[in-house]
Amino acid sequence: MKNTEKKRVSLTDHLRGLFKWVLDPIGGFLNKIGLTPNSITMLGLVGNIVAAVFLARGEIFWGGILVFVMWPVDALDGTMARLRGEPTDFGGFVDSVTDRYSELAIFAGLLYYFLQEGNSLAVMLVFASASGSILVSYTRARAEALDFDAKIGALTRVERYLVLAPSLIFNIPLTAMWIIAIMANFTALQRIFYVRRQARKHF
User: How many domains are there within the chain?
Assistant: First the structure.
């Protein structure tokens, strides 16, 4: 059941191409000093966990700064692997899994903060945001496992960070949760219907 749809370029791929002139020299330097792509992947995860601790403590601005800083770090592991000429399926797998852990850590920090504040609406919005974000990733992974394309959607991971980081820096996390809760779940539905349309062409 091969997918005949034209493969789409994700926003992540587009941004990596756009900022290749910045990422390649940095990635080359990190390779030269002996760091590995997996070590940068782990650095990004640790950085986001630290950000989550700041968020849980109510230090939203500093948590937002760390989230903002960790975002470009996340793009470096793939760049480093490409420059080494050794991108592997396992490396990509590890990167994807740690991306999910990083995002969930951030949501966990916000969840704890809103629980301490006694804001039940915000707690439910964080839950909806986390659920939608995981479903966006899962729908693509499941679709690609079945040889369908699912690189579409209004709020993929890059867009979620573009919403989340500035909202945290400006100390309006609830605004980010409203946007992500609605649009992430909408994106998951977009992908479901997009795959359904492809599947119908085979019958």
Answer: 1
